[in-house]
Design a protein that fits this description.
10 helices; single chain; 243 residues; globular
């Protein structure tokens, strides 16, 4: 049987390649696939710290494309409050409950996106209060699973950001929130035991970022998204069923 941490390394390479290409997805994909063999709470400090390294590099490189007004006035306030709330709730939940809830969340998101893509439906108008509520829910998901990307992308679907600005703004969000989570993991003692794993995965992260940067400019994003959403649907079902 494959070593669980080697399996997680393969998941990290796939997931961080995708995020370098699209601006989100690294933790939700690595966590959902890795959770088939490892506890969520053991993986979170590793994946969050790696995401800080990647999103820091991409934020600096793409800094000219970040929509600072949208980031500071709408996204970060709701996400930060929700993230702190979700992190505070996480010690009260068992790993089985976390896996089941996470499985249902990613399955809902992936199936919804596949249905929308298949019907070629444009995003409808969403009232500002609903968008703020959705962003807060994304923050809670991020505090629990470090995976607020699916809900945040859903909340921002009606914005007029183009592909490049959307990616740049999202990676800045993850840099901000995951830096806070990394400090929280340091404070509660869960970061130190994860450091050897973090160091061993940095080369995979570097290769994944370089590959994702090339794919961002050369490969149709929709083809990758369809494959990833199918993979997430299956993984979410497995997590919900096995939890």
């Amino acid at each position: 049987m494959i070593d669980p941490w080697i399996w997680l390394g393969a998941c990290i390479f796939l997931a961080y390649t995708l995020e370098a290409m699209t601006g989100f997805g690294s933790v939700v994909i690595a966590l959902s696939l890795g959770a088939l063999m490892l506890p969520i709470k053991d993986m979170l400090p590793v994946l969050v710290a790696l995401n800080v390294l990647m999103s820091g590099f991409l934020t600096w490189k793409l800094r000219g494309l970040i929509d600072r007004s949208l980031l500071l006035s709408l996204i970060l306030p709701g996400m930060l409050v929700g993230t702190l709330l979700g992190f505070g709730l996480s010690p009260w939940l068992s790993d089985g409950a976390l896996k089941q809830g996470f499985g249902v969340l990613i399955m809902w998101f992936a199936l919804r996106e596949l249905l929308r893509m298949g019907q070629s439906k444009p995003a409808g108008h969403t009232p500002l209060w609903m968008t703020r509520l959705q962003i807060g829910a994304a923050g809670i998901s991020h505090g629990l699973f470090a995976s607020g990307g699916p809900l945040l992308v859903y909340a921002l679907a009606a914005t007029e950001l183009d592909k490049a600005r959307f990616r740049a703004t999202l990676v800045c969000v993850w840099l901000s929130l995951n830096s806070v989570l990394t400090l929280a993991f340091l404070a509660n003692g869960s970061l130190a035991p994860a450091l050897p794993h973090i160091a061993s995965y940095v080369p995979l992260l570097a290769v994944g970022v370089l590959l994702g940067e090339r794919l961002h400019h050369r490969v149709p994003e929709q083809h990758f998204r369809i494959g990833i959403y199918v993979l997430l649907s299956i993984t979410g079902a497995l997590l919900a069923w096995r939890a």
